[in-house]
Structure formats: structure tokens, C-alpha cells
Amino acid sequence: MVRESKDSSFSIICEGLAVGYSGKPLCNGFDLEINNGDYICIVGENGAGKSTLIKTLVGLIPAISGKVLLRGDIDKSDIGYLPQQREMQKDFPASVWEVVLSGCLDRLGFKPFYGHKERKLAADAIRELDLEDIKNESFRELSGGQRQRVLLARAIAGSKKVLVLDEPITGLDPVAAAHLYQLLNRLNQNGTTIITISHDISKALSAANKLLIMSDRPHLASEAERKEVLDV
Q: How many angstroms separate the CA atoms of 11 and 4, rounded?
């Protein structure tokens, strides 16, 4: 991931980007521009490279070819990441407060302890996601919807500029999923850039201004393709 000069706005630019594992690409190189305030939904068949693209964007795995550029007022620490829920996450032995505060870990640098700034960021995230009543409860005792809200708060504590979410409603009941989408919509309306994978296409597209179709040739959907996806 390459950092370029600052400006008042920002973009995440993919140039000739091909993603995959062990040197084997899952798609041809493609170009993509994500701007501040965008809400982009990524769709595609299983194995098309959706999660691989997400992990490449946040720097967890390298690109097969091409590059990801950060332009304007953004750097790597401005990108919050919410991975798919795993069984080990559900049994994490910590309080809600501790889980959310851990989202500030990358901000510590060489400091050995969380300071006032990090604690305020965590407190603000807890308040924004209406978690104050359960902030002292054990993460492992929460419902699926509550856990996902806590993990979203953790990502927000790390950064409210860009949130990258890998299938955030997986395992949630319809009510919890609808609540999560409402939270994402509110965050986006308040200026947070959202990049998400979702299988609930109709709800995701009701807010998303861009639809990326992952295939052997990834591309942004035209209006006709958006309608076709909604009709499937």
C-alpha cells in the first residue's frame, strides 16, 4: 500500500490490482477508485475473491500484481476493519469495554498503555453504538447482534474515516441484521466511507452508491447491472 501526498479529501485507488493467494490470481488486474463518503458494496460468486480483495485493501495480504494507493488526507491507520465473525471471537474472554478499547491498539505506537485519547475514542464509539448499558458485560455472554455491534464499535474506535467490513451480517437474525444496516447507513451519512461484502443485496444497495462485481474481470456495476443484481 503506497501513501501519496495529502489533500483536503481522500481516495483509495486500485491500479491494475489482481488479488489472490500463493501467487495465484483470482481475477485479472482492475482499476477502482473509492472516495471519501462512498458506500461500496462488493458482490460476487463464492471464490470470486471478495474477502481476498478486502484483506488486500487493509494490508493483511499482498497484491498479486498492481497496487493500492492512498491519496489525500488518509493513511493506513485511518482504515478500520471488521472481519467475519469466527467461533474463537465469540468466546473472547474480555469485557465489552476492553474489546472496544483494543481497537485503538495501532494508535499506541511506542506507548505501553492506553492514554486519555484512546479511552475517549473507545467511549465515544460505545456511546455512538448504544452500548453503554452493556460496556462492563462479558463479550462471550452477548447475543450475535450485540457482539457484532461491539466489534463495529471496536473498528470505529480505530478509525471513523473508512470502515471495511467482511460479511458483517453473517450469523445475525433479521432484526439484528436490519439494526446493523441502520448503524452503517447512519455512519455513512455522517461521513464515514463504507466498504462491505454482503449477501443481502437489496438492503446493501439501498444505501450503497457503488456496486463492485467481483469476477474474473472485476468492475463497477452499471445501472442496468444494479437492477439485474436486485432482480436475482
A: 10
